[in-house]
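A quick aside before the break. I want you to see a complete sequence-to-structure record at least once, exactly as it would be stored in a machine-readable document. Don't worry about memorizing anything.
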Amino acid sequence: MKKTAILLSAILLFTASVNIDAQSKLRFGVKAAFSTSNLVSPYDTFNLRPGFSVGAFVQYKITDFLGVGFEPVYAISGANRIDPLSIHFTDEVLLNDVYGVPFKRHNLMFSSIELPVLATYSLQVGSVGINFTAGPSFNFILGATEYCLKENMTSFPIELAGSPHIVTDVTDRFTYYDIPLVVGVGTEFLLGGNNLSIDLRYSNGFKDINNVESKPYLLTRALSLNICFGLNGFFIK
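That is the input. The structure line, written in tokens, reads:
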């Protein structure tokens, strides 16, 4: 009986020490990012579109130098001045009325859930800590919207009927997921027991997200400035 009590006490002490050690290596908090994204086709690279993402992160430090993290976010991205024929079969999308007045530009916006799984290597250079980040992101496209703007490009004074802006849901023109590779570099600060990290990341998609048959492939690209604020200092002492 006494030996059993001693064994149970030892197990409890070991479990407590493991939990304390795990907590000291665990980081979690909120994050936000400002981004510029684009689409690349074999024939053209479209214009950059500003976007953002908001969400959370959790990271576990395997060693003093290496950590692994998970960062679920809601993101807005896309591309501006795309070639509409890359996702439409006919040229009717280029015209908006019986006069044949063409659209001036076609912009595309995605809303998605992004789930990056990232490894981070930390290096100390003098008094500055540098973090190198890399890993895949599993992105799920929730919706795609095309924004078109009318413009009278004829030599006749034609009055454009209706709103000059046309908004079209084109979600079915794209696959529902993308798996880009994310790489980045940044630094980290300690603020009152909580960590603040700032890094610059580049995302490169390798999967064709164009769901329209017989049309050129479309690959995603993005550059983002990420800010992560840890909250573990409020909960783990």
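Two observations worth writing down. Confidence is low (pLDDT under 50) at residues 1-23, 155-160. Residues 27-235 form a domain with the Porin fold (CATH 2.40.160.20). We'll return to this after the break.
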